């Protein structure tokens, strides 16, 4: 009965570890809603005079994105690297010697050997080492939509790009805050100038799952595994 109970607990633990998440699929930071509609001011009635006809020439206005619904292209130039290393070593040794007691100066022996003499020794040793290196590089471009004008020269932008390939889908999501002063004349801005940037890149489908660890391997590499 005890053996059956242990097997049941182990099976339930494996099932929970295997079904914790769909491995290999990218997890977007938020569902992308439809972009808000641009606010268009009503146009003034045009004057159709014979000498002067009013038209919007916009001689002193550029085409930079600044209003809700405008488009801005974010050029991805992400290149990050990180490295961490840790080493720990602990050791301790101890010993206790107890000499054989004597009675009136005569040691207590049995067949010529001291019987109450004792010696205790102990030692502990621990060594641990860890090394982690990670580097990421992402290049490309995503055209985002202005979803909010913050009123201080900053714009909240959000955009995504989905590519449906032969064996799966690729997804890129970008959102953050940009300054209108940093936007180029061609409505392009580098991703390293995006404040509070959130960038997600990944895939769904066969190719993404083929690079993921199986449920049994995840169990042996999880905190549930005691060794």
TrEMBL record:
Mention any Pfam family matching this sequence: FlgH
Q: How does it sit in the membrane?
A: Lipid-anchor
Location within or outside the cell:
Cell outer membrane; Bacterial flagellum basal body; Membrane
InterPro entries the record matches: Flag_Lring
Q: Which UniProt keywords apply?
A: Bacterial flagellum, Cell outer membrane, Cell projection, Cilium, Flagellum, Lipoprotein, Membrane, Palmitate, Signal
Q: Which GO terms describe its biological process?
A: bacterial-type flagellum-dependent cell motility
Q: Which GO molecular function annotation, any one, does this entry have?
A: cytoskeletal motor activity
Q: Superkingdom of the source?
A: Bacteria
**Where is it mostly found?**
membrane
Q: Does the keyword Transferase apply?
A: no
The record's note on quaternary structure and interaction partners says:
The basal body constitutes a major portion of the flagellar organelle and consists of four rings (L,P,S, and M) mounted on a central rod.
UniProt similarity note: Belongs to the FlgH family.
Function of the molecule = Assembles around the rod to form the L-ring and probably protects the motor/basal body from shearing forces during rotation.
What name is this protein filed under? Flagellar L-ring protein
The scientific name of the source species is: Lysobacter soli
